[in-house]
Each structure stands twice: as C-alpha cells, then as structure tokens.
Amino acid sequence: MTQVISVRLPSEWAGRVTSGLAREWVTAWLSQPTTLQQAPVPGAFKLNLRLSKLEIAELRRTSGNSTSSAIRAILALHVSSTSEPQKRGIKWVIGGIASGIVLFLLVVTGVGPRGGNGR
Predict the structure, then answer these.
(1) Where in the chain are the domains?
(2) Is the entire prediction scored with pTM above 0.70?
(3) Is there a contact between 45 and 15 (Cβ–Cβ < 8 Å)?
(4) How far apart are CA 65 and CA 62, in angstroms?
(5) In the chain, which ranges are E strands?
(6) pLDDT at residue 9 in the model
C-alpha cells in the first residue's frame, strides 16, 4: 500500500526537483544508504511524493530522522551537486544585440581583409 507524502522544500529547488526524481533518489538511497548531512530548512516549495508504507518505515529507521527531514536530506545530496539552471534573460538579449552592432560596424567601416589601403 502506498501513501502520499507532502514535503516542503527550499524555494530555489522549484523547477529542479520533480516528484519522479525525488522518488528515484529516495529509492536509490534506500538501496544503498549513505551518511546524510543536516536537512535543509523547509521552504515554500511543496512536493508530493508517493512511497510505500514499507519504504517510509525503512526511511525513518535507516536515517533516524522524520520522513520529511530524511527526504530533504536525500534530495540535498543531489540538488547541491546539480548546477543552477541557466536563465537567458535580458542580459543575454543585450549581449546578442551588442555583438550584432559591433559586427555591423566592423563590416560598414571596412575593417577586415578587404579594408584598409588595399595593397
């Protein structure tokens, strides 16, 4: 029989952790437990995770923590090693426009192999 566990995670994990990934990481940890660091503080991001009652009992027993704390600590093992997703915002657009302007000016002013005094 399975049970849905709701876990509060740090807000910055939104978009980086899904229920599927969380389940995968928790079950992998249960098959080969490692030492867990202090669990991150609960945040505003809420994740629902379906685990069997046996997995929940094993998680509590093996980790020595509450279910939510153990899940946060396990996810932290993976999220901390995952790089922050790249955001292509206004800075990226400005960089592209500036590069285009510089290239345009180089072509118009004749800088390059055909520019100069034409020897």
Answers:
(1) 2-79
(2) no
(3) no
(4) 8
(5) 2-9, 45-52
(6) 95
